[in-house]
């Protein structure tokens, strides 16, 4: 939770001085261009922006296809790790680097790629990222050594960071202001479904082919995205011309990478019999070093007019509180997503089919709820939607934690349905605030922070889950998932508190209209 607190504290001036030292469907979004309502929050001084409808449809398809590919790639290889470990003769623990290398590369490079989008144009960075993604996927397909595959996954992570870093900015440029809420909701639904669809798609591919084909399928889809994107994505002019030194990039990558490596190591392997292990001492020292690195990095960024780490945006209370809420919400979601299959498969000994039903309830509920939440943007304050959504999520997670171990399956489905509804009500309005509360020329930085919040929350949630499972080994393993759901409920409540603390924001630029936070 350290970074969640950091984003919230940066909105506080004394802390900064201390550092200085009704129901819409997906098809309706694509098909129609309804007349905006008379609500002043959505139609006041709305400029003629966004793409015309015929081109908008094609641009939406390209944007969603690209984000689907890079989000899927973060989880699609999970099911193939045993096969990859066997093929290269490495330990199971070593094979996890296939996933970790991709995630760390994306997390460390999201903000630099978003900055490149502001400097060279979002379309150019997006297409360059997809081109690199295609090449890196092809190299993964032909890899003959384990560490060669890991390096190719790092290249995929660089490409994924380029696509994710400018994704939200492209969404903002594609939709007119009065439809932006729906566009953000559709994007959120796509990311939510892609985040959990990886293992299912992998199972389908592995039933007819070997693991290298998990990477091969990316190549033709990436090429299609590039060809269509060249013709249909909005063309943007550079919005800032400040150059960042290589030290800024290195500090950004090291600051994010080191703190998560240290935090994960401290939680999962840092303690034994109530004492700090040798590995824990190394992790604790690395965590302390990462905090020093963060202080240096932030002090250096404060001297820049348009910093790589967007401190100018984090000084906006609504932005920093929304970032903190997003980190807590995604931590909550990841805790639940890790605990659920462990509970179903390992403890309850349910079939893969039954587990699949449970895992699918959450994203299906998000897909049903997020478009409705997108329609409410501008009509209902985002703080109210965020609080209601996170309280609903906390109730569902609390029910999962308190439920008897062998409760009927339909009760678990009902609880998970509440979780998905709550998350769906929260995500789109919160994303809308992050993306629009700052000036439009900083859309790239805001979009980069949007992805950073998601990945930060997911990484923290995974580390917390690993720590809980390590603390409750067999025969007490049944307590691990229960505590994971309980901690997830607390994270959801923290997200709700961050949401309700937001005050109505004054738009940063005239092109934004009136924003209800």
From TrEMBL:
Segments traversing the membrane: 59-81, 87-113, 125-147, 153-171, 183-205, 211-229, 249-267, 279-298, 319-343, 355-373, 385-403, 409-428, 449-471, 483-501
Domain of life: Bacteria
Gene Ontology, cellular component aspect: plasma membrane
Compartments where found: Cell membrane
MF GO annotations: transmembrane transporter activity
Stretches assigned to the Major facilitator superfamily (MFS) profile domain: 59-507
Keywords annotated in UniProt: Cell membrane, Membrane, Transmembrane, Transmembrane helix, Transport
Membrane topology: Multi-pass membrane protein
Name assigned to this protein: MFS transporter
Source organism of the structure: Lampropedia aestuarii
């Amino acid at each position: 939770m350290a970074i969640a607190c950091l984003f919230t504290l940066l909105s506080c001036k004394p802390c900064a001085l201390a550092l200085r030292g009704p129901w819409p469907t997906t098809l309706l979004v694509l098909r129609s261009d309804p007349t905006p309502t008379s609500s002043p929050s959505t139609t006041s001084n709305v400029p003629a922006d966004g793409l015309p409808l015929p081109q908008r449809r094609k641009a939406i398809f390209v944007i969603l296809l690209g984000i689907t590919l890079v989000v899927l790639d973060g989880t699609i290889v999970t099911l193939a790790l045993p096969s990859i470990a066997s093929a290269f003769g490495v330990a199971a623990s070593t094979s996890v680097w296939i996933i970790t290398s991709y995630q760390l590369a994306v997390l460390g490079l999201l903000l630099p790629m978003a900055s490149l989008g502001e400097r060279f144009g979002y379309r150019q960075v997006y297409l360059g990222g997809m081109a690199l993604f295609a090449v890196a996927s092809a190299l993964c397909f032909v890899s003959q050594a384990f560490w060669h595959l890991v390096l190719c996954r790092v290249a995929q992570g660089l490409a994924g960071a380029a696509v994710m870093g400018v994704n939200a900015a492209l969404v903002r440029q594609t939709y007119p202001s009065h439809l932006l809420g729906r566009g953000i909701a559709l994007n959120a639904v796509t990311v939510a479904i892609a985040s959990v669809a990886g293992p299912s798609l992998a199972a389908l591919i592995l039933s007819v082919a070997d693991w290298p084909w998990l990477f091969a399928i990316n190549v033709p889809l990436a090429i299609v995205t590039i060809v269509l994107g060249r013709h249909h994505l909005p063309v943007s002019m550079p919005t800032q011309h400040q150059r960042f030194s290589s030290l800024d990039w290195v500090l950004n990558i090291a600051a994010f990478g080191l703190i998560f490596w240290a935090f994960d190591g401290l939680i999962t392997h840092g303690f034994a019999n109530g004492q700090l292990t040798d590995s824990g001492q190394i992790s604790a020292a690395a965590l302390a070093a990462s905090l020093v690195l963060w202080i240096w990095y932030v002090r250096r960024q404060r001297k820049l007019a348009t910093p790589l780490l967007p401190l100018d945006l984090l000084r906006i209370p609504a932005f920093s509180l929304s970032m903190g809420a997003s980190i807590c919400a995604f931590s909550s979601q990841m805790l639940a997503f890790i605990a659920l299959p462990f509970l179903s498969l390992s403890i309850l000994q349910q079939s893969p089919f039954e587990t699949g039903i449970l895992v699918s309830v959450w994203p299906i509920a998000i897909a049903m709820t997020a478009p409705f939440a997108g329609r409410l943007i501008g009509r209902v304050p985002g703080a109210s939607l965020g609080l209601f959504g996170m309280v609903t999520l906390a109730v569902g997670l609390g029910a999962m934690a308190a439920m008897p171990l062998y409760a009927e399956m339909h009760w678990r489905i009902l609880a998970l349905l509440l979780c998905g509804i709550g998350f769906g009500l929260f995500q789109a309005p919160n994303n809308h605030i992050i993306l629009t509360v700052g000036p439009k020329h900083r859309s790239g930085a805001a979009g980069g922070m949007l992805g950073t919040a998601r990945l930060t929350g997911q990484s923290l949630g995974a580390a917390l889950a690993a720590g809980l499972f390590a603390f409750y080994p067999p025969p007490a393993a049944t307590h691990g998932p229960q505590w994971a759901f309980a901690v997830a409920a607390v994270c959801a409540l923290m997200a709700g508190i961050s949401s309700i603390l937001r005050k109505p924001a004054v738009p940063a630029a005239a092109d934004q209209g009136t924003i209800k936070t």
